[in-house]
Amino acid sequence: MPRVKYTNSDVALVARMLRAEAVGEGKQGMLYVGNVIVNRAVADCLDFTDVRTIRDVIFQVQGGNYSFEAVQKGSLFYKRARAVEKKLARKNLNYWRQYPAQYALWYFNPYAPCPPTWYGEPLTGRFKNHCYYEPAAGTCPSVY
Facing residues of 108 across strands? Predict the structure, then answer.
């Protein structure tokens, strides 16, 4: 059973985001970004109480900007999804979760060492350029 309901269009959206956000980090890095996308769709807490679909997650606006920078600025996001990224996206949507993004709801590239918290949420780890953050203990049981 998939972690979240999805369509072929959702697979393509996730695949495009994986490439746009993490192609330089290889397949593993793209899978971690996919964890965050799916985690946001299943989380019923914090900034994610009103996002239930993959499309909602990808195009969520917070503070006047898209949550994912690639939607606003990323030329890679607007290119057709490739087979390799679609395969990774399906893997995320169906079952794949792994540390440091297993329960993460946020990631970013600080171009420096990872801060111990990001907007008050604890660092779970780093993979290449991205730092991953999950909700503080007890604040979002739906993501675990």
Answer: 131
Torsion, Cα of 78, 20, 133, 63 (10° steps): -30
Residue with tokens 């195009």: 59
SS3 44: coil
Task: Please report the pLDDT score of residue 83 as a whole number.
Answer: 98
At residue 42, the pLDDT reads 96
The three-state secondary structure class of 92 is helix
What residue type is assigned to position 111 of the chain?
Y
pTM above 0.85, yes or no: yes
pLDDT for position 93: 97
The Cα 112–Cα 129 span in angstroms is 9
- CA 63 to chain CA centroid, nearest Å: 18
Angle, vertex CA 28, rays to CA 99 and CA 94, nearest 5: 75
Beta bridge partners of residue 52, listed in sequence order? none
